[in-house]
Specification:
Structural class: alpha/beta
Largest sheet: 9 strands, mixed
Number of strands: 16
CATH topology of the largest domain: Rossmann fold
Helix content: 25-40%
Order of helices and strands: HEHEHEHEEEHEHEHEHEEHHHEEEEHE
Number of domains: 2
CATH superfamily of the largest domain: Response regulator
CATH class of the largest domain: Alpha Beta
Strand content: 15-25%
Length: about 425
């Protein structure tokens, strides 16, 4: 495994030398309803499912607004293959059993042509086998811990080699610190992501001085903060999710810890904590993701980023913040549209075959995004940003066209062999 990690590290290091350098309210509603492993809906519509946490500990319902924005834009432009998209939006309520039940309904009763799911990795893994068994298409559009290898599951958000490694490299290159304390959520996202942070610290000559896992929904972090202070860490790499992350930040600010930099590929991009915690409490925190709302408003913003923010704000002016998950959902819908149009049908196998060509891409607000046919992961751009004293975000570095290399280095090609599993950096087995 080490040799695979070294390949990834070397590739990114070369790229960086060349470069130089809890939820918002949403519109949208719906109930579970109609679609199947391959078809269009009845009549002139195509049923498309969207599963997300609109309530519960992991609620981040602004993603529904992004999904609806993409659907509305596509429908107003004539739809897909001359048919209108009929969205079926369901609330997973941060409950795994509910996700499993809803997945079956969307596939077997609603016969959705595709289902998008933006909840936790734990819920993705709980429903992935249902899609594989029914040969239905699941698209997971948010940042994640990496390693999923499945013909019927596309992961179009950032993986660890596209997020954790660039951020760790930036921290190292800019002498932010060398001693890292990892604070992660206690489920597969946090567990596997923590393994990646450890792996990249080893590669970069940085020291992990502590690793701690907190159950989902944890609200008290005084003990964790004391451990961090006692550890001598100069960087805290946070991998918390949901309500726990806001609780940690509130308590961290109140503790007035000096000389320690917060860093994350999950926080801020996930729940816009810089808009919730009073300024300047999070000043100096460094976060990495494929998109932040600030990218569409700062000087030098790309036309695509500016237009996305403007269109989103015009339709949903009351949303607190446009997260990277929201942009990822929006982009994923357009990637699916491109694959359907290339295939000339919504039939699942044909759409997947279109993705497998390596030719499906979209000029996203975050930059050009394309799907790697061998791994069903996305090639995309990562942006590293820093929280300022007024809690605005400033771009520190942009890392374009980062390849999803990990599964390839393991010799995985889902077009040839479909392992239907999740690989971790420490073993060639499931990372659950």
């Amino acid at each position: 495994m080490r040799k695979h990690m070294k390949k990834i590290f070397a590739a990114f290091a070369a790229a960086t030398m060349i470069l130089g350098l809890a939820g918002c309210g949403s519109g949208g509603s719906g109930s579970s309803g109609a679609s199947g492993s391959g078809g269009a809906g009845g009549g002139d519509t195509i049923k498309v499912g969207f599963m997300s946490d609109q309530s519960g500990d992991n609620a981040i319902t602004c993603n529904v607004a992004a999904f609806q924005l993409a659907v509305d834009e596509i429908n107003e432009a004539g739809g897909v293959l001359g048919k209108q998209i009929e969205p079926i939006i369901v609330d997973g309520q941060s409950d795994t059993q509910r996700y499993q039940n809803l997945a079956k309904e969307l596939i077997l009763e609603d016969e959705c042509a595709v289902v998008f799911q933006d909840g936790t990795s734990a819920n993705r893994e709980a429903i992935r086998s249902t899609f594989e068994q029914n040969k239905a298409l699941l698209i997971y559009p948010t940042f994640y811990e990496g390693g999923v290898a499945s013909r019927y599951c596309l992961c179009t958000g950032t993986g660890p080699e596209q997020s954790i490694l660039p951020l760790m490299q930036y921290l190292k290159d800019n002498s932010i610190g060398n001693k890292v304390y990892i604070l992660a959520a206690d489920y597969n996202y946090g567990q596997i992501s923590a393994q990646w942070v450890q792996e990249y610290c080893d590669q970069l000559g940085m020291e992990v001085v502590g690793t701690e896992f907190s159950p989902l929904g944890t609200s008290q972090f005084s003990s964790s903060i004391s451990k961090i202070q006692d550890s001598g860490a100069d960087i805290v790499y946070t991998l918390l999710v949901g309500s726990a992350q806001t609780s940690f930040f509130d308590q961290w600010v109140n503790a007035k810890v000096d000389g320690v930099t917060l860093a994350s590929t999950c926080n801020i991009v996930y729940s816009h904590e810089q808009t919730i915690v009073d300024a300047p409490g999070l000043s100096g925190m460094i976060s990495a993701g494929n998109f932040f709302e600030d990218m569409g408003t700062e000087d030098g913003a790309t036309d695509a980023a500016k237009k996305f923010v403007e269109d989103f704000r015009a339709k949903y002016p009351n949303e607190a913040y446009i997260t990277n998950q929201a942009e990822g959902v929006y982009t994923a819908v357009y990637l699916w549209k491109a694959a359907v149009e290339a295939a000339g049908t919504t039939e699942t196998e044909a759409v997947i075959d279109a993705f497998d060509t390596d030719e499906i891409s979209f000029a996203a607000p975050s930059g050009e995004v394309s799907v790697d046919g061998a791994t069903h992961q996305a090639k995309l751009t990562l942006t590293i940003m820093e929280v300022q004293d007024d809690h605005s975000l400033k771009t520190l570095q942009t890392c374009p066209d980062i390849e999803p290399t990990y599964l390839k280095d393991l010799g995985i090609d889902v077009r040839v062999d479909d392992p239907q599993t999740q690989y971790s950096p420490l073993e060639n087995g499931t990372g659950n």
